[in-house]
Amino acid sequence: MGLENIARGQxxxxxxxxxxxGPAEYFWxxxxxxxxxxxxxxxxxxxxxxxxxxxxxxxxxxxxxxxGLVIENHADAIExxxxxxxxxxxxxxxxxxxxPGLANRLARQGWxxxxxxxxxxxxxxxxxxxxxxxxxxxxxxxxxxxxILDAQNExxxxxxxxxxxxxxxxxxxxxxxQYIVLRAExxxxxxxxxxxxxxxxxxAAQRRKTQPxxxxxxxxxxxxxxxxxxxxxxxxxxxxxxxxxxxVSNVHANFFVNRGGATANxxxxxxxxxxxxxxxxxKVDLELEIELVGW
Length: 295
Prior knowledge:
The longest helix has 19 residues. The strands form five sheets. Strands 6, 7, 8, 11, 12 and 13 form a six-stranded antiparallel sheet that branches. This protein starts with 5 loop residues before the first strand and ends with a strand. About 30% of the residues lie in helices and about 30% in strands. The chain is globular, with a radius of gyration of 19 Å.
Protein backbone atom coordinates (compact mmCIF):
# COMPACT_ATOMS: atom_id res chain seq x y z
CA MET A 1 0.00 0.00 0.00
CA GLY A 2 1.59 3.26 -1.08
CA LEU A 3 1.19 6.62 -2.77
CA GLU A 4 0.11 4.92 -6.02
CA ASN A 5 -3.24 4.33 -4.31
CA ILE A 6 -4.02 8.06 -4.03
CA ALA A 7 -6.68 9.26 -6.46
CA ARG A 8 -7.34 12.85 -7.55
CA GLY A 9 -10.83 14.25 -8.05
CA GLN A 10 -12.68 11.15 -6.82
CA UNK A 11 -16.46 11.75 -6.85
CA UNK A 12 -17.77 11.40 -3.30
CA UNK A 13 -21.53 11.18 -3.90
CA UNK A 14 -21.40 7.40 -4.60
CA UNK A 15 -19.53 6.93 -1.31
CA UNK A 16 -22.28 8.49 0.84
CA UNK A 17 -25.73 7.25 1.82
CA UNK A 18 -27.23 10.58 0.71
CA UNK A 19 -25.70 10.26 -2.80
CA UNK A 20 -24.76 13.94 -2.69
CA UNK A 21 -21.42 15.74 -2.91
CA GLY A 22 -18.59 16.84 -5.14
CA PRO A 23 -15.09 15.39 -5.59
CA ALA A 24 -12.23 14.91 -3.14
CA GLU A 25 -8.99 16.72 -3.90
CA TYR A 26 -7.14 13.57 -2.77
CA PHE A 27 -8.75 10.21 -2.04
CA TRP A 28 -7.10 7.18 -0.40
CA UNK A 29 -8.88 3.91 0.39
CA UNK A 30 -7.26 1.96 3.26
CA UNK A 31 -7.88 -1.58 4.48
CA UNK A 32 -5.99 -1.86 7.77
CA UNK A 33 -5.00 0.08 10.86
CA UNK A 34 -1.43 0.34 9.54
CA UNK A 35 -2.61 1.76 6.21
CA UNK A 36 -4.88 4.24 8.00
CA UNK A 37 -1.91 5.52 10.02
CA UNK A 38 0.23 5.70 6.87
CA UNK A 39 -2.39 7.69 4.96
CA UNK A 40 -3.01 10.10 7.86
CA UNK A 41 0.70 10.73 8.37
CA UNK A 42 1.19 11.36 4.64
CA UNK A 43 -1.68 13.83 4.57
CA UNK A 44 -0.37 15.69 7.58
CA UNK A 45 3.13 15.82 6.08
CA UNK A 46 1.57 17.57 3.07
CA UNK A 47 -0.30 19.97 5.39
CA UNK A 48 -3.62 18.66 4.08
CA UNK A 49 -6.83 18.70 6.06
CA UNK A 50 -7.94 15.09 6.57
CA UNK A 51 -11.45 13.70 6.58
CA UNK A 52 -12.09 10.07 7.50
CA UNK A 53 -14.94 8.55 5.50
CA UNK A 54 -16.53 5.41 6.90
CA UNK A 55 -19.84 4.12 5.58
CA UNK A 56 -20.78 7.60 4.40
CA UNK A 57 -23.83 8.10 6.61
CA UNK A 58 -24.60 11.21 8.69
CA UNK A 59 -22.58 13.51 6.42
CA UNK A 60 -23.51 16.13 3.84
CA UNK A 61 -20.70 16.75 1.37
CA UNK A 62 -20.43 20.16 -0.28
CA UNK A 63 -21.35 20.36 -3.97
CA UNK A 64 -17.92 21.86 -4.70
CA UNK A 65 -16.24 18.87 -3.08
CA UNK A 66 -13.65 18.56 -0.33
CA UNK A 67 -10.20 20.11 -0.20
CA GLY A 68 -7.45 18.01 1.32
CA LEU A 69 -7.33 14.25 1.80
CA VAL A 70 -10.37 12.02 2.17
CA ILE A 71 -9.45 8.62 3.61
CA GLU A 72 -12.07 5.95 2.98
CA ASN A 73 -11.63 3.64 5.93
CA HIS A 74 -12.07 -0.10 5.40
CA ALA A 75 -9.86 -1.15 8.32
CA ASP A 76 -12.26 -3.71 9.76
CA ALA A 77 -10.32 -6.34 11.73
CA ILE A 78 -12.13 -7.64 14.83
CA GLU A 79 -10.71 -9.57 17.80
CA UNK A 80 -12.77 -11.19 20.55
CA UNK A 81 -11.58 -12.35 23.97
CA UNK A 82 -14.03 -13.82 26.52
CA UNK A 83 -13.09 -13.88 30.19
CA UNK A 84 -12.20 -17.17 31.89
CA UNK A 85 -15.77 -17.78 33.05
CA UNK A 86 -17.29 -16.83 29.69
CA UNK A 87 -19.46 -14.18 31.34
CA UNK A 88 -18.06 -11.11 29.58
CA UNK A 89 -16.43 -10.47 26.22
CA UNK A 90 -13.82 -7.92 25.23
CA UNK A 91 -14.15 -6.95 21.57
CA UNK A 92 -11.48 -4.92 19.78
CA UNK A 93 -12.69 -3.56 16.43
CA UNK A 94 -10.82 -1.43 13.93
CA UNK A 95 -12.51 1.85 13.16
CA UNK A 96 -13.66 0.93 9.66
CA UNK A 97 -15.66 -2.09 10.82
CA UNK A 98 -19.37 -1.66 9.95
CA UNK A 99 -21.30 -1.24 13.20
CA PRO A 100 -24.48 -3.11 12.17
CA GLY A 101 -22.48 -6.15 11.06
CA LEU A 102 -20.60 -6.21 14.35
CA ALA A 103 -23.85 -5.88 16.32
CA ASN A 104 -25.47 -8.71 14.37
CA ARG A 105 -22.50 -11.03 14.83
CA LEU A 106 -22.31 -10.44 18.59
CA ALA A 107 -26.04 -10.83 19.17
CA ARG A 108 -26.09 -14.16 17.34
CA GLN A 109 -23.25 -15.37 19.55
CA GLY A 110 -25.18 -14.42 22.69
CA TRP A 111 -23.42 -11.22 23.73
CA UNK A 112 -25.65 -8.37 24.94
CA UNK A 113 -25.06 -4.65 24.59
CA UNK A 114 -24.99 -3.69 20.90
CA UNK A 115 -28.34 -4.98 19.63
CA UNK A 116 -29.59 -1.40 19.24
CA UNK A 117 -26.88 -0.76 16.60
CA UNK A 118 -28.14 -3.28 14.03
CA UNK A 119 -29.88 -0.57 11.99
CA UNK A 120 -27.28 2.18 12.24
CA UNK A 121 -25.50 2.45 8.86
CA UNK A 122 -22.16 3.63 10.20
CA UNK A 123 -18.68 2.40 11.05
CA UNK A 124 -17.16 1.92 14.50
CA UNK A 125 -14.92 4.99 14.25
CA UNK A 126 -17.75 7.38 13.46
CA UNK A 127 -19.84 5.84 16.23
CA UNK A 128 -17.02 6.49 18.72
CA UNK A 129 -16.77 10.13 17.62
CA UNK A 130 -20.51 10.86 17.61
CA UNK A 131 -21.60 8.60 20.49
CA UNK A 132 -24.03 6.97 18.07
CA UNK A 133 -27.11 5.43 19.60
CA UNK A 134 -30.70 4.27 19.17
CA UNK A 135 -33.49 2.59 21.12
CA UNK A 136 -32.17 3.89 24.43
CA UNK A 137 -28.61 2.60 23.89
CA UNK A 138 -25.42 4.40 22.89
CA UNK A 139 -21.86 3.48 22.04
CA UNK A 140 -20.63 5.21 25.17
CA UNK A 141 -22.48 2.63 27.28
CA UNK A 142 -20.25 -0.26 26.23
CA UNK A 143 -16.97 1.22 24.97
CA UNK A 144 -14.07 0.72 27.37
CA UNK A 145 -11.41 2.66 25.53
CA UNK A 146 -10.40 3.85 22.05
CA UNK A 147 -7.02 3.99 20.34
CA ILE A 148 -6.48 7.48 18.94
CA LEU A 149 -3.95 9.03 16.55
CA ASP A 150 -3.61 12.67 17.60
CA ALA A 151 -2.57 15.75 15.62
CA GLN A 152 1.09 15.17 16.55
CA ASN A 153 0.90 11.60 15.20
CA GLU A 154 1.11 10.16 18.71
CA UNK A 155 -0.90 6.99 19.33
CA UNK A 156 -2.40 6.03 22.68
CA UNK A 157 -5.51 4.47 24.20
CA UNK A 158 -8.08 6.90 25.59
CA UNK A 159 -10.40 5.86 28.41
CA UNK A 160 -14.16 6.31 28.24
CA UNK A 161 -13.84 9.18 30.72
CA UNK A 162 -11.35 10.94 28.43
CA UNK A 163 -13.76 10.62 25.50
CA UNK A 164 -16.22 12.78 27.50
CA UNK A 165 -19.44 11.37 26.12
CA UNK A 166 -22.66 13.34 25.99
CA UNK A 167 -25.83 12.84 23.94
CA UNK A 168 -24.59 12.37 20.34
CA UNK A 169 -21.38 14.15 21.26
CA UNK A 170 -17.85 13.59 22.56
CA UNK A 171 -14.52 15.34 23.06
CA UNK A 172 -13.48 14.05 19.62
CA UNK A 173 -16.52 15.54 17.91
CA UNK A 174 -15.96 18.87 19.63
CA UNK A 175 -12.41 18.97 18.18
CA UNK A 176 -12.91 17.94 14.54
CA UNK A 177 -10.01 16.88 12.27
CA GLN A 178 -7.53 16.71 15.16
CA TYR A 179 -7.98 13.09 16.21
CA ILE A 180 -8.38 9.85 14.26
CA VAL A 181 -9.92 6.73 15.79
CA LEU A 182 -7.87 3.63 14.99
CA ARG A 183 -9.55 0.97 17.13
CA ALA A 184 -12.08 0.66 19.92
CA GLU A 185 -12.52 -1.85 22.69
CA UNK A 186 -15.95 -2.86 24.00
CA UNK A 187 -17.16 -5.02 26.86
CA UNK A 188 -20.36 -7.03 26.53
CA UNK A 189 -22.17 -9.42 28.86
CA UNK A 190 -23.19 -13.01 28.18
CA UNK A 191 -26.90 -13.44 27.44
CA UNK A 192 -29.26 -15.87 25.78
CA UNK A 193 -28.62 -15.72 22.04
CA UNK A 194 -32.31 -16.17 21.21
CA UNK A 195 -33.18 -13.16 23.38
CA UNK A 196 -30.45 -11.05 21.77
CA UNK A 197 -31.60 -12.00 18.27
CA UNK A 198 -35.26 -11.29 19.12
CA UNK A 199 -34.36 -7.86 20.50
CA UNK A 200 -32.19 -7.11 17.49
CA UNK A 201 -34.94 -8.19 15.08
CA UNK A 202 -37.47 -6.07 16.95
CA UNK A 203 -35.29 -2.97 16.59
CA ALA A 204 -34.66 -3.70 12.91
CA ALA A 205 -38.37 -4.16 12.21
CA GLN A 206 -39.18 -0.92 14.01
CA ARG A 207 -36.65 0.98 11.91
CA ARG A 208 -38.02 -0.50 8.68
CA LYS A 209 -41.53 0.53 9.69
CA THR A 210 -40.76 4.05 10.85
CA GLN A 211 -37.84 5.19 8.65
CA PRO A 212 -37.61 5.79 4.89
CA UNK A 213 -35.69 3.48 2.58
CA UNK A 214 -34.81 6.26 0.11
CA UNK A 215 -31.30 7.71 0.00
CA UNK A 216 -30.90 9.83 3.11
CA UNK A 217 -28.33 11.13 5.53
CA UNK A 218 -29.98 9.51 8.56
CA UNK A 219 -31.46 11.62 11.34
CA UNK A 220 -31.00 15.25 10.31
CA UNK A 221 -31.38 16.87 13.74
CA UNK A 222 -30.67 15.87 17.31
CA UNK A 223 -33.71 15.34 19.49
CA UNK A 224 -34.11 18.36 21.78
CA UNK A 225 -34.40 17.66 25.52
CA UNK A 226 -37.73 16.03 26.32
CA UNK A 227 -38.99 15.98 22.74
CA UNK A 228 -38.40 14.58 19.26
CA UNK A 229 -37.14 16.54 16.25
CA UNK A 230 -39.39 14.56 13.91
CA UNK A 231 -42.50 15.41 15.94
CA UNK A 232 -41.66 19.12 15.95
CA UNK A 233 -40.96 19.20 12.21
CA UNK A 234 -44.20 17.38 11.40
CA UNK A 235 -46.24 19.55 13.79
CA UNK A 236 -44.77 22.66 12.16
CA UNK A 237 -46.20 21.48 8.84
CA UNK A 238 -43.01 20.49 7.01
CA UNK A 239 -43.57 16.77 6.44
CA UNK A 240 -43.32 16.19 2.69
CA UNK A 241 -41.91 19.65 1.96
CA UNK A 242 -39.51 19.74 -0.96
CA UNK A 243 -36.70 22.01 -2.19
CA UNK A 244 -35.33 20.97 -5.55
CA UNK A 245 -34.90 17.21 -5.35
CA UNK A 246 -34.58 16.88 -1.58
CA UNK A 247 -37.68 16.28 0.53
CA VAL A 248 -38.67 15.99 4.17
CA SER A 249 -39.69 12.34 4.31
CA ASN A 250 -43.38 11.46 4.45
CA VAL A 251 -42.41 8.47 6.60
CA HIS A 252 -40.35 10.25 9.27
CA ALA A 253 -39.99 14.03 9.32
CA ASN A 254 -36.46 13.99 10.80
CA PHE A 255 -35.22 12.32 7.61
CA PHE A 256 -34.56 14.28 4.43
CA VAL A 257 -34.52 12.08 1.32
CA ASN A 258 -32.84 12.47 -2.06
CA ARG A 259 -35.44 12.12 -4.79
CA GLY A 260 -32.71 11.92 -7.42
CA GLY A 261 -30.13 14.55 -8.32
CA ALA A 262 -30.49 16.58 -5.13
CA THR A 263 -27.69 19.01 -4.33
CA ALA A 264 -26.12 19.95 -1.02
CA ASN A 265 -27.36 23.51 -1.52
CA UNK A 266 -30.93 22.16 -1.81
CA UNK A 267 -30.43 20.39 1.51
CA UNK A 268 -29.02 23.47 3.24
CA UNK A 269 -31.95 25.57 2.03
CA UNK A 270 -34.45 23.03 3.35
CA UNK A 271 -32.58 22.79 6.66
CA UNK A 272 -32.85 26.54 7.17
CA UNK A 273 -36.55 26.60 6.27
CA UNK A 274 -37.30 23.82 8.76
CA UNK A 275 -35.15 25.30 11.53
CA UNK A 276 -36.77 28.71 11.13
CA UNK A 277 -40.29 27.28 11.12
CA UNK A 278 -39.73 25.14 14.22
CA UNK A 279 -38.11 28.07 16.02
CA UNK A 280 -41.03 30.37 15.24
CA UNK A 281 -43.72 27.86 16.19
CA UNK A 282 -42.14 26.14 19.21
CA LYS A 283 -39.26 28.42 20.31
CA VAL A 284 -36.90 25.44 19.84
CA ASP A 285 -33.58 25.69 18.02
CA LEU A 286 -32.94 22.41 16.24
CA GLU A 287 -29.30 21.31 16.20
CA LEU A 288 -27.87 19.32 13.32
CA GLU A 289 -26.92 15.72 14.06
CA ILE A 290 -25.13 15.38 10.71
CA GLU A 291 -21.70 16.72 9.81
CA LEU A 292 -21.21 19.24 7.02
CA VAL A 293 -18.12 18.30 5.02
CA GLY A 294 -16.26 20.63 2.68
CA TRP A 295 -17.56 24.01 3.85
